[in-house]
Design goal:
The protein has 351 residues and is of the alpha+beta class. The protein has eight helices and ten strands. It is 49% helix and 24% strand.
Length: 351
């Protein structure tokens, strides 16, 4: 069941993304020649007006083919004939729709919870050395850890774990004002919890009840946190803290979503866990698609800005076929990377 949910979810994300391009193109008077879900040979297609609607056989990707998008066109309704601001809106619309989808999924998931854990300290373990006049107080809300904002409760553990020195720069919200604790030592201590020895910092955190305000706040903060997680992961990749071997494609993500659902104690909990992970994936796709890389919308946006700046300075227009060559080369490289990651994911499953 969870495999089916994961596969359908990927199809939903593709549809939502391309729908964003399609709706904005239609609204801004750009001719759409084809609106297709998936790739390869058509399973179903129907011509309505100027647009061919198609469902294709290979469950990867999809596209909204606009007139003049990758080639010269004299059509006044061609993509390249429209002002730069209209083209930017159309190119950003796909990622915007994925982000909105992630928000709505989080709203659905959080609507089922009774309350929300917070980063506000409600107490200390017996003997915890962090409680002092110069240190942490009951009622303090962890606001920043090593300069990074604490958006949701899970950020506390994530941000503390990224620092291996045991000395932190903390900013806490205390009595309505921000208090900085520079070079504050925090070491994991061994505590007995439910008869077991566990290493903890010795902090208890509070819970806030669910109402409209806290529901919307936690939904938005989680979405913003997901965006940051993507950027932090990309930074870790650039710095060599993680490698391409750690990346996953559609096969690996479906596998993780399926395992997440199966590990839950109840079907309802499993579905909610899969949806939560799905929200992270939706927002991940929204951010990744805006990276300035050829074949991605971010690459198209980058080249649009560059060519617009070049034209405004030189009064000369760069032929759109050159942009098409760049995107074609980028697509080949992107497909090669996807093939490598997919093979790796399949090999991991086989092993």
């Amino acid at each position: 069941m969870y495999i089916l949910i994961a596969i359908l979810f990927f199809g939903f994300l593709i549809f939502v993304h391309e729908l964003g391009h399609f709706l904005t193109a239609k609204a801004l008077d750009v001719q759409v020649n084809e609106f297709s879900i998936c790739m390869g040979p058509a399973i179903f297609k129907k011509q309505r007006g100027e647009t061919l609607y198609a469902l294709r056989a290979i469950p990867i990707g999809g596209y909204c083919a606009m007139e003049g998008e990758d080639s010269e066109s004299e059509n006044p309704r061609a993509f390249t004939s429209k002002p730069v601001w209209r083209r930017l809106i159309i190119l950003c619309a796909g990622s915007f729709m994925n982000f909105v989808a992630g928000l709505l999924i989080l709203l659905i998931v959080y609507s089922s919870v009774a309350g929300f854990s917070t980063a506000r300290i409600s107490g200390f373990f017996d003997g915890c050395p962090l409680e002092s006049e110069e240190g942490l107080h009951v009622g303090d809300e962890l606001y920043r850890i090593d300069g990074r904002r604490v958006y949701i409760y899970s950020d506390v553990g994530m941000l503390l774990a990224r620092n291996t020195t045991g000395v932190f720069d903390l900013t806490v919200k205390r009595d309505g004002r921000l208090v900085e604790l520079k070079e504050f030592p925090m070491q994991l201590q061994l505590y007995e919890i439910d008869g077991e020895q566990q290493y903890k910092y010795g902090l208890y955190f509070g819970v806030e009840e669910k109402n409209v305000s806290t529901l919307l706040k936690n939904t938005w903060n989680t979405a913003v946190d997901f965006v940051r997680i993507v950027w932090m992961s990309l930074g870790d990749l650039v710095r060599g803290m993680v490698s391409v071997q750690d990346m996953s494609g559609p096969v690996g993500i479906v596998s993780v979503m399926t395992e997440t659902g199966r590990s839950a104690e109840t079907v309802q909990e499993g579905v909610l866990n899969v949806l939560y992970l799905g929200a992270l994936i939706a927002i991940n796709l929204a951010v990744m698609n805006l990276l300035p890389l050829p074949a991605l919308d971010g690459g198209r946006i980058f080249l649009l800005l560059v060519t617009s700046a070049f034209t405004s300075v030189t009064k000369k227009k760069i032929p759109s076929k050159y942009e098409g060559y760049i995107h074609a080369a980028g697509m080949v490289l992107l497909l090669a990377l996807m093939a490598f990651i997919t093979f790796k994911d399949i090999w991991k499953l086989v092993r």
